[in-house]
Design a protein that fits this description.
Blueprint (H helix, E strand, L loop, with lengths): L1 H13 L15 E3 L6 E4 L16 E3 L5 E3 L4 E3 L31 H4 L9 E4 L8 E6 L2 E7 L6 E3 L4 E3 L21 E4 L7 E6 L2 E7 L5 E3 L4 E3 L22 E4 L7 E6 L2 E7 L4 E4 L4 E4 L21 E5 L2 E9 L2 E7 L4 E4 L4 E4 L12 E4 L7 E6 L2 E7 L8 E3 L4 E3 L18 H4 L5
Antiparallel strand pairs: 1-2, 2-3, 4-5, 6-7, 7-8, 9-10, 11-12, 12-13, 14-15, 16-17, 17-18, 19-20, 21-22, 22-23, 24-25, 26-27, 27-28, 29-30
Length: 434
Amino acid sequence: MTKILTSTILTSTRNPKIPKDSPCLTQSGIIPHPKKCHLYYNCSLSSESALWAYYEMFTVECNYPQLFDSEQLRCREFLNNNCNGRFEPVDPCEYRRNQCLRSHCQPCSLRFGSCRGRPDGIYPQHEFSWTPKYFTCYYERAIAHDLCEPPIPIFSPIENQCVSYDMVPKEHGGLRPDCKIRANGHYADEMGRCNFYFQCDNAKFQGFHKCNYGFTFNPILKICQSPDQVPPPCGSGSPPSCVKRPDGFYADLAGRCSYYFECKQSVFKGFHKCSRSHAFNPYKHSCVRGIGSQIKPCGIQDNPCQNRLTGFYHYNSSSSQYYECHEGLFIHFGTCPNGQIFNLSSKQCEIAEMKDYCANKADGRYKHPRAECIAFLECKQHTTFRVAQCSDKLNGTRFNSLTRSCDQPQNICPPCGYKWFDCPSYIESTTKLS
């Protein structure tokens, strides 16, 4: 009983009646489709085909990108084919055989590129994305879909060609240097290749260069030299100075992401190198994997030293946490032991001797007597509430002892600014330790 019922259901599904508007109801043979230029009717086909559950009965589709010639009654190349007002498809996804009929099917738009409205040429299969896939357009038809292969495995939507990983931006999984935070000039290769360097111009990466055989790039002089004249890690010249640098690890001063050096008791102890695909992270004092965990320009995390001058700074207005910048690179982060603050002048952690500074002072802000012009103390209820600093970025603000606020240097009297008029003599007294 069950078998008979199942058979009846299948028969009724696969043998629908011929529609009244079908030309095959009254005609036979091959008939052009009246509305679509890539379809035609083959009236000799069986009306019981399971395909008619998805498609118009008796219709056949030409292979992409062919069209049906209504005079020759056959599929042929799309060039010189007159559709006579019928819809003329140009994209692979306008052909029904490329559409999904079932679940778990990757959408057609992800499998094929679109050439509609595009001039002849090659394009990334997924616009604005960096993948190996690209396709070729010819008369608005995607005539070929291809893959980039090593050593140039990624198609660049910027260069419109296959490129190597060192030409792919870091935010897209590549290794291309980021020139947005660099001044014009030449820089050591971020990957640590000693005989390579790259060029930045107007915040744009201009390409890699290679030193002549036997020479390495000197990131200080910005020229290629023999290794004995180049500082480590690429040469045997003078190493970076550890004088007045707290003990710990420091990122390479030239921005080579995998290299870092160690200072101990003001003595340079040597360079270390991270393993492949890792970079040194000053926050963690260790090597980390993935650009999402790395600091710009090596990764995509914010760089606290961007646009800052070379030197030490308090971190987030904390007097006990500090970091060092070198030519816009974030190279070191440190925290003083409990009960100590970092002295920006001596560049060392020192015992906090400012606890009595606010004992006889009214609530408010006062210039830090032992630090540079950017730092100030805030008194509250006759105690030192906090030690903070103004913006110390390039052309940033300084502490104005007269207004007790952060201000531009041109509005501040010497020594912290260069205002030359209306500078009362008592300003100097407000900067002295009481």
